[in-house]
Specification:
Helices cover 39% and strands 14% of the residues. It has 303 residues and is α/β, with parallel strands linked by helices. It folds into two domains: 3-128 and 187-247, Spore Coat Polysaccharide Biosynthesis Protein SpsA, Chain A; 143-178, no CATH class. A five-stranded mixed β-sheet has the order 3-2-1-4-9, with helices on both faces. The longest helix is centred in the first third of the chain and has 16 residues, at 69-84. The protein is globular and about 55 Å long.
């Protein structure tokens, strides 16, 4: 009974270290990716953290842009590294550096081992079920995944003009005037970036030519990390072994794309989520709201 965890981080190595301690078990595998654009001192801290542990792999850093393919690509490489490690894990779990387990490592191992060859991927059909107001736009625009352009967009004066040219102030940058056709060879599914994949699902996603074709088709879509896992798995022979659940408690706020930070006042909600079978929660800030993490560590992870 072992689990592979992929930690996709972009801030505060101290909180990453705390998360690693909360998940720690010698049988588990940990892949850590820290955004290449972060200061060298942060990368050095994580290298020091990983040193000496055969089950902690520090992934070669790449720049990760929110809502673009680079975010998914970092996780895809983390999944490949977990398989290449040769370690005997049953499930692969992707987490951000601001996630937190709600169950002990031993409990997580048992719950996922008991699930057998089942993956947990929340999914829906965006073009039919209407959960995303911008569903068709995500597919038909060709979005730009460029760290250099992102730097230009942040400049005063010229950045605002560039944003208007590439789609608008509050939009992901896309090529003006370019419209892509809707996919015809597979059914498009969406959901959340956060998944739990069985080992057979992980192998299919990495090695299947059909999976590769879907990934290539969605490479230039908007927020591909929220549809690649879903589209690959629900168009695969493993679809019947996908449960429509991501096992997370996420602090979504009405009308806001990014989850809120859990506070000490949210602990009863988190305790109820753990009792109801949620395994992870997000998001947390150990500097601003460290008390709630401490209560999880002392009251939930030791239960």
């Amino acid at each position: 009974m072992a689990v592979a965890f992929h930690l996709l981080t972009h801030r505060d190595p101290g909180q990453t270290a705390r998360l690693l301690r909360s998940l720690w078990h010698e049988d588990n595998t940990f892949i850590i990716h820290h955004d290449r654009r972060r200061p060298r001192a942060e990368h050095a801290m994580l290298a020091s953290l990983a040193a000496g542990f055969s089950n902690v792999i520090l992934q070669t850093p790449t720049p990760v842009l929110w809502g673009r393919f680079s975010l998914y690509a970092a996780q895809h490489e983390g999944l490949r590294l977990a398989l290449a490690s040769g370690r005997p894990w049953t499930h692969w779990v992707n987490l951000s550096g601001q996630c937190q387990p709600l169950q002990s490592p031993a409990r997580i191992q048992k719950l996922l081992a008991d699930a057998g060859d089942v993956s947990f991927v929340r999914h829906f059909r965006p073009l039919i079920e209407g959960e995303w107001r911008d569903a068709e736009t995500r597919l038909t625009r060709r979005y730009i995944d460029s760290p250099m352009l992102e730097r230009w967009l942040r400049l005063r004066f010229i950045g605002r003009r560039l944003r208007r040219f590439f789609g608008g102030e509050n939009e992901l940058p896309s090529l003006p005037g370019v419209r892509r056709p809707l996919p015809m060879t597979f059914t498009w599914y969406g959901g959340d970036n956060w998944v739990v994949l069985s080992r057979s699902a992980a192998e299919y996603l990495i090695h299947s030519p059909d999976a590769g074709r879907i990934i290539a088709e969605l490479r230039h879509s908007g927020f591909p990390e929220e549809s690649i896992f879903q589209s690959v798995m629900m168009n695969s022979p493993l679809a019947s072994r996908v449960r429509n659940d991501h096992l997370r408690c996420i602090n979504w706020r009405s009308g806001i794309a990014s989850p809120g930070i859990f506070t000490a006042e949210d602990f009863p909600r988190l305790r109820a989520a753990a009792a109801g079978g949620r395994i992870f929660a997000r998001k947390f800030d150990s500097v601003r709201e460290g008390v709630v993490i401490a209560r999880i560590e002392s009251e939930l992870l030791r239960a």
